Give the backbone structure.
Amino acid sequence: MYFFPRKYYFVIRRPAAVMNRVAAERRKGMKRLTRQVSCALLLSCMFLWMTTLSAAQIKRTYRRINFARGSSTAVVKGRVPRDGFNYYYLKARAGQTLTARITSAKGTAVFTIIGRQSNNLLEGAAAVTDWTGELPGSEDYALHVGAQGVMGDTYTLEVTIR
């Protein structure tokens, strides 16, 4: 009557109960996989959100560059910190000429000059080691000192206003 031995009959033709059980196991596996992927995605998003939040909370501390009485030049020595920048500012008037020069032990220190109130980047003063130019307005000017690729480089910043 049977073409196959009886022990192989259920392999070829499975009853509905067996098919339902197999389908249920597959659904459980897919639910488990979906849950695992969802958890991994959620944890990744939380990690990115927390790192972005902590980066946004880095407080910038500006130090004023003071000129000695009767002097138009100031020298500042420092080390590029772990967060990447030291922030300085100085008061200057429109039409004055600002000259800034930075030297460093490893040769990687650079600076950028930005007007603090106007938030304007001075032309040609982005990531440079030497800059001279006439200031467009009377305001505080920020000097952001950083290093290209190397943290911890020591530097000497010389600023002259005439």
